[in-house]
Amino acid sequence: MIKVIVAGAAGRMGQRICYMVQQNPDLVLAAAFEQPENPAVGKDVGELGGFGTTGVKISAGLESVIDQGDVLIDFTFHKATMDFAQMAANHGRAMVIGTTGLSADELATLRNLADGSFPCVQAPNMAVGVNVLFKLVEKTAAVLGDAYDVEIVEAHHRMKKDAPSGTALKLGEMAAAGLNRDLAEVGVFERNGIIGERTDAEIGIQTIRAGDIVGEHTVYFAGAGERIEISHRAHSRDNFARGAALAAAWVTDKSNGMYTMFDVLGLADF
Hints:
The protein is of the alpha/beta class. It folds into 2 domains: 150 residues, NAD(P)-binding Rossmann-like Domain (Rossmann fold), CATH 3.40.50.720; 107 residues, Dihydrodipicolinate Reductase, domain 2. Helix content is 36%, strand content 25%. The protein contains 9 helices and 12 strands. Helix 4 links the parallel strand 5 and strand 6. Helix 1 packs across helix 8. The protein is elongated, with a radius of gyration of 19 Å. The protein starts with a strand and ends in a 5-residue tail after the last helix.
């Protein structure tokens, strides 16, 4: 059995990851932790999450549990993720990272750490359906070409800290790849006032934050006289947590380096 450590276990996502780890026959929930000052420290993670007593109490900090597991699942905050990655590198522990908001420099540092010290699955979204969506968007963009404008709209709950979502950015990157463009050059993330006509090359990504929306993404391919809309709507966090558990079961015996959910799901060559 693969022993799993869950970061941010008292949060909404952390609780569901703990639950899904327990549902995977290849995994065992070995440890869970939070920041030392979190009031959930010392509580049973299952009782806190409403899925029964697990015998796993939330510990104070990764340092106290790093030696108890084979793989760390982290969906926390970008600064914390980088600290956890350094500790995983020091201890040779595999990681599954679903944290969004990582900068280009942080991703480069993460890649260097993983290449030298541990296997890591990093993806902005670990739901199976979303990863299929990524591939569909790339292929649709390549088929439709420059005659269709590409726009992406994403919606999440009001507590989400980063914008646009990592999933929306990845969708933009996949569309740009299909069109042989660079999202860093053509991405448009805000429109306000007299902005002039839309350029042919731009890819728009717009953000909604409201209520308790789990996650919704729609990609528009709009041409003359018609448009195609490809959407994914998450009804619960379990889709993301289930994918994270699959990634944890997959990555532990892999060589050092960075992987994506395309690797986990066999979509790399799709």
